[in-house]
Amino acid sequence: MRIPFLWITLGLLLSFASDSAQDGGQKANNLSDYLATHPWDAAKSGPMIVVDPEDTPSKSKEATLKAYNRMTTVVGGLSAIVPTEMVLIDDSLAKPPNLYDGMPEHLKILYLLSTLNPRQLGLATGDGVGLGDLQGEQAQVFKSIVTPGLDWATYRVGQDGTHDKLVEEGSVPEDQLDQIKIKFQSGLVIDLPLQSNPNQYANYEPLWGNGRSPAAKPGEKWTARKGPIQNNNFGADPRKVVPNVAKPSQLNYRSSRFDAQVSLPPQSTIKDVLRAAGAATGTEILSDIRVSGLTVQSFGAKVRAGDLLEAIALCVTGTYRKVDTAFVLTSDLTGMGARALKFAAWEAAISKELFRRQLLWEGQIAKSGAIDKIGFDSNDRFGPDDQIQKSLNTGAPVPFSQLTTPMRDYITQLANGGPSTGLRTDHVSLESEVRYAFVLPNGQPLSPEFQSLGRRTFFAVPKPADVAEEDKAEMYPPNAASKQRLMVRAESPAAVLALADQARTHGFNQIWLETHQKDALLTAIKQGLKVSLVIRPWEAPPAASSPYKDLNLLGDTGTQLAARRAVEPEWLAYERKADYWSSPPPVYDFASPSDWDLPKRWADLASLAHTPGLSGVVVLDTEPPGYEPNKHEGMLQFGFYVPWMAVLHEFGYVEPLRLGFLREHGVDPMDIVSPDIVLGFNISQPFFEDRRLGFFENPPNRSVLLMEDVPFQWYTYRSELNEGAITSFMSKFADVTAPMYVTPRSTTTHVEPSLCLLVMPWTPGQALPRITPTGTFDSHVQIGITMSTFDEESSLSEIGGIGSRLQYPQFAFTFDVSNVKPNRLPKLLDRWFPKVEIH
Questions:
Q1: Long-range Cβ pairs for the range 735-739 (8 Å, 24+)
Q2: CB-CB contact of 82 with 70 (8 Å)
Q3: Chain Cα centroid distance, residue 137
Q4: Which of 65, 367, 577, 822: disulfide with 640, CB 3.0–4.6 Å?
């Protein structure tokens, strides 16, 4: 079970408060107190450092460093008091996930229900089914459900109907766990229309005994299970606590460069110590913001720089990562953000498999007829009468007057809950859901679990698998291409001539040509076709060296990301569900804003745009993914573009950009965890905490708060770099006479790629158009040309979707065949576009 962040924080703070008080209200000893009573003699024992002694409390009354989880270690000629343990994260994920181990309880119970025979089902819908009634794998599943134990509590409902007073609590003895039973019953779900929009409904589940609703009457007692512990690791155990030793480092402590002596002030900070070591060695050494401000108490005068740097790393159980020309003190060589993305993708794949199995089990329960045998408990005051039963699960509105008295009382209490409830009560829609409850060994049933097995309508007999679409899409009608555009790529006159011939043969009189060569462009213009120059300002040339090709969080270039997603099931599923007339555009190698050759290439592109005879200039992809703006309130996800896949598509992680941000904000972007990444288990590490990585150390330190705004600072940093660069680039077209078109820029990160495929008219001097996540444009122009990737992989639904629009003059398309190999293009065009006679 995921415990809400607020409760975790409060619990940890309360725990810390109790640990911080001793007899008489005195403050607990900290490491500074220990040092005061155990003074270090530097003249006798040599120099020594200790980090953050004031905020290192004792864990016991033992008068040794062990009480503080600390020990003394020696690094060269320097002693240091360092943590005894460190946390290592194994992100190899080499072991296949164990779905049985990590499966949520309600899914285990759903599976168990799908396996019950008629006799067992009769027990399960009566007094309950137990271990003695099950066999084989059923018994194993049952044991896995009850083995963690079962705690229960009895409450009395207060006069307000929502306040529960604890009356009694207990636990089922370990030797009686096999006597627990599970029972299934239906429960009511009431959908109340909203006053503001009668077509929208608010859902309520009147669980009697639920202290969060007015379902229970004052004075009543109810007994429920206390929250179960849920393991979400699926057999993975990535977080290991091990003895503290030096981690692998990209800074060579033994290098002669680090033989320089560094002065030790009595009191300093990690940031200042690293700056001093850097100045002495001619090396830029930075520190993560989470440890930069930690105090460093020193004893002695001078120490070798390499020894000091290694000791500081041991003091925070960290290491040094190289970022361009500098080094940063951080948790590991692997970035925390990259690691979180990897785990998120791993968990998402498991969730998808669990969902597949859930649908399978729901279908089996429906097909066997078991779902129809799960009725309302006779003690459920919200059980429907015969008249209401006819409207249940049909979606039909039920007048308020036809409801039972408990239902009417419940709805009246909801509606009177406050002036802002905004609920209509003249009619409702009623559904049932499948609930489960535990029965104690003494036969007492507990209140149904808040987590149900789903609404009755979810349990449907599966339909036959969809038959793969056959190749029946017809060729587009004659002259379909005459008003459309064919987008091609060529870098030589010979290639242009062949492409122009194919365009004319299949009825196109307009081509969009992506080229970097003046002679190829001039050749195209002479072919009697309308020619528009296509410019991708952020496309990296094939010969560009790798440091200037932009990278994503996992270190992929655009072409490497394309290869990765080509075999990624999540991306393939997204492509199948994308808009049926405009599939997502391909990714390619993007140039980084730090590319020193970018201004020259942009000048060359602008020069091509001034070529006489052009029918247009088209500027695509001015905002590579990851460079979009973002507001503090958070990111948005749309359609089937799942969060981790969206984060994977963010670029901007080249080392020069990372270093620039690190210098300004104190965090290597590789260590930034996207707010869209939600992990089901803990991969946090001491000193470098982030609430997005899991649970905190006790007590939570200030680093948690320091990281809250950092992701949004990173989005802003990239966005402003792109905004400034592209504004400068577009100013080069101020005197271009040919009509210009641009793809819209996004107003937020992670907009579905297919939303940005419209190419819109643009006049130099005007703001570039922007698109919102809902598909509306921030532009005076509301018309445009839809780009559609057109190749051997194009789906028939996509082809057909375009065809249905070609008959209407208001729809304009550009068929992008720029990635089709020249020898395959004729066959592709022959398949869809009728040839025309050329006179």
A1: 735/610, 735/764, 736/609, 736/610, 736/617, 736/764, 738/532, 738/609, 738/614, 738/615, 738/616, 738/617, 739/615, 739/616, 739/617
A2: yes
A3: 35
A4: 577
H or E element: which one contains 797? helix 796-806
Task: Report which residue type is found at 260.
Answer: A
The pLDDT of residue 336: 96
At 299, give phi and psi (nearest 5°): -130, 125
Please say if the pLDDT value at position 8 is more than 50: no
Please give the pLDDT value at position 464. Answer: 62
Going from the C-alpha of 276 to that of each of 53, 253, 261, 588, the distances in angstroms are: 21, 15, 10, 43
Q: Look at residues 768, 729, 744, 790 and name the one whose alpha carbon lies nearest to residue 581.
A: 790
Helix (H/G/I), strand (E/B), else coil: 406:
helix
pLDDT average, residue stretch 13-29 = 40
Q: Contact 57/30 with Cβ under 8 angstroms? A: yes
Three-class SS state of 24:
helix
> In which band, very low, low, confident or very high, does the pLDDT at 96 lie, cut at 50, 70 and 90?
confident
- pLDDT (tens digit, 9 = 90+) per residue, 491-550? 999 999 999 999 999 999 999 999 999 999 999 999 999 999 999 999 998 776 656 799
Residue 700 has, within 13 A of its CA and on its CB side, a CA count of 20
Q: Backbone phi, then psi, for 732, in 5-degree steps?
A: -75, -10
The answer to whether the Cα torsion of 7, 11, 12, 13 is positive or negative is positive
Closest CA to 86 of 74, 71, 65, 64: 71
Give the pLDDT confidence score for residue 781 in this predicted structure: 53
Q: Which neighbouring-strand residues pair with 189?
A: 431
Q: Is the pLDDT of residue 173 over 50?
A: yes
Residue 498: in which H helix or E strand, if any?
helix 493-505
Task: Tell me the residue type at 432.
Answer: S
